[in-house]
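Explain this one:

_____
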Amino acid sequence: VTPVTFRLRLPATWKIHNAFHVQLLKPYRDPNTIFVGRQPPPPPPVLVRNEPEYEVESVLAHRRRRNGTVELLIRWKGYDPSEDSWVSETDMSNGRRPLHDYLVKQGVTSTTQL
C-alpha cells in the first residue's frame, strides 16, 4: 500500500477496511511469555446428556459417610488442587480408570472393601 501502511488479512465477517497505519499496529506477543508462570484456563466440561461432566485426573483419598456411602476425593484434570472435591462413588461414571488405579493402590477390588 504505502511505506507506512499495512494491509491485513482479516476474517470476511469483519466489515472493516483492512489497511492500517503503522502507528496503529504493534507486534503480537504470546500471552504465555508476557505472564510467565500463569496457569492456563481450566478445560470446559463435556456435556453428556445435557449435563456438564469434568474429566477425573486421579482419586486422592476416600471416606465413608455415616449412611455407609463412600465418597472419593477427586483431582480434576486441568484444574488446580484447590478445586479438588469429594464425590459420591455412585457419581463416578466417567472416572472408572482413576478409581480402579486408586483401588489397586489400596489393595482392594471394590469400594465396598474400603
User: Anything to note?
Assistant: Strands lie at 5-7, 19-21, 46-48, 51-53, 56-64, 70-76, 85-88. The radius of gyration is 25 Å. The chain is about 15% helix and 30% strand.
